[in-house]
Write a structure and sequence with these properties.
alpha/beta; Udp-n-acetylmuramoylalanyl-d-glutamate--2,6- Diaminopimelate Ligase, Chain: A, domain 1; Alpha-Beta Plaits; 5-stranded mixed beta sheet; 11 helices; 30% helix; N-reg_PII/ATP_PRibTrfase_C; DUF34/NIF3_sf; GTP cyclohydrolase 1 type 2 homolog
Length: 373
């Protein structure tokens, strides 16, 4: 039988927590990691309705886009509206994991899914994640030192490329050295040039681990003065990051794009700021409360930003800089991702019963204007 930990580990692989914003709270947030799981429910938010559904349906794990306990909570009581759902889940043994902004920014996450629905092409992040600075470390060792040196370097943090660890490359060659009067060479004698069969071993190393890696290599190398080269590496532009920007197959007026976006989002009611006749070719997307991406959208040449929520003064800012703004609603821009996630979990774990919450709904209702007398 599956456990909470297994599903949470898959979720971490799909939407790595390193993609989350620094202020966010993501991962397995509630429950017993070792508890068995047969039924998983995804939802946008843990509410009284979604919690009741989970308990009623015997769910072992809720994957909620929005995190529980997002802000500091001093009391978790059954009679407080904010924490009553958690009390129910605790009594029923239901765990909760949240990917939130890591899911927003994942390679095939919420924003990428919105781009697919909108028919965008050549999609890239609005705010690419800066590649971590790194070095290539090259050390020359006799064959007999190879395993010890690699073990030390790997243990100190070198040799990781993506999800692969203990990566290195070795080239055989011949090294020479001549020890001075104060030396005590491991091979040969001082005062005479020696030629030794050696390996050139290369591995990558994060900048933050460089000092530890060098110390580990020296501690395990048999030479009195091991030869070590350190080369800085340039990071290529990342394909990961927050928000997305892409192009339409052809230009279309802002008003026509907005109507098509409404259809793509299941008939969502949209607010639009800008000249409805303005041609749109490049579209920026930021799900949820994403109006902070307006400047990024303008900088990268987008004619419109589609997001879930926008503050009044951000709308005025969009008008002033000539960028259209399409506000589709928080629920409308993120609920499709929750539904997609349920399908992904079900494919990854065919033995589990997985579904998106059936009782969850947009908390905002559309009320028609009453007829005038």
């Amino acid at each position: 039988m599956r456990t909470v930990t297994e599903v949470a580990a898959w979720l971490e692989g799909f939407a790595p927590s390193r993609l989350a914003e620094s202020w966010d709270n993501v991962g397995l947030l509630w429950g017993d990691p070792d508890a068995p799981v047969e039924r998983v429910m995804t939802c946008l938010t843990v509410t009284a309705e979604s919690a009741d559904e989970a308990v009623r349906e015997g769910v072992g794990l809720i994957v909620s886009h929005h995190p529980i306990l997002f802000r500091e909570t001093k009391r978790i009581r059954a009679d407080l509206p904010a924490t009553a759902p958690l009390w129910k889940l605790a009594r029923a043994g239901v765990a909760v994991a949240s990917p939130h902004t890591a899911f927003d920014s994942a390679t095939d996450g919420v924003n990428a899914g919105l781009c697919r629905r909108l028919g965008l092409v050549d999609v890239e992040p609005l705010r690419p994640i800066a590649g971590a600075s790194a070095y290539k470390v090259v050390v020359f060792t006799p064959e007999s030192d190879r395993d010890a040196v690699l073990a030390g370097a790997f243990g100190a943090g070198a040799g990781r490329i993506g999800d692969y660890s203990e990566c290195s490359f070795a080239i055989p060659g011949r090294g020479t050295f001549l020890g001075g009067e104060s030396t005590d060479p491991t091979v040969g004698v001082k005062g005479r040039r020696e030629t030794v069969e050696e390996l050139r071993i290369e591995m990558v190393c994060p900048a933050a681990r460089l000092a530890s890696v060098l110390a580990a290599i020296r501690a395990r190398h048999s030479y009195e003065e091991p030869a070590i080269d350190v080369y800085p590496l340039e990071s290529p532009p990342s394909s990961l990051g927050a928000g997305r920007i892409g192009g339409l197959e052809g230009p279309r007026p802002l008003g026509e794009f907005a109507r098509a976006a409404s259809e793509a989002l299941g008939g969502a009611t949209l607010h639009v700021a800008g000249d409805l006749g303005m041609p749109v070719e490049r579209v920026a997307v930021a799900c949820g409360a994403g109006d902070d991406f307006l400047v990024d959208a303008a900088r990268l040449g987008a004619q419109v930003l589609l997001t879930g929520e926008a503050r009044f003064h951000r709308v005025l800012e969009a008008r002033s800089i000539g960028v259209g703004l399409v506000v589709a609603g928080h629920y409308a821009t993120e609920r499709p991702g929750v539904e997609d996630l349920a399908e992904r979990i079900a494919r990854a774990f065919p033995d589990l019963h997985v579904w998106p919450s059936r009782d969850e709904s947009d908390p905002l209702a559309i009320v028609a204007e009453p007829p005038r007398p």
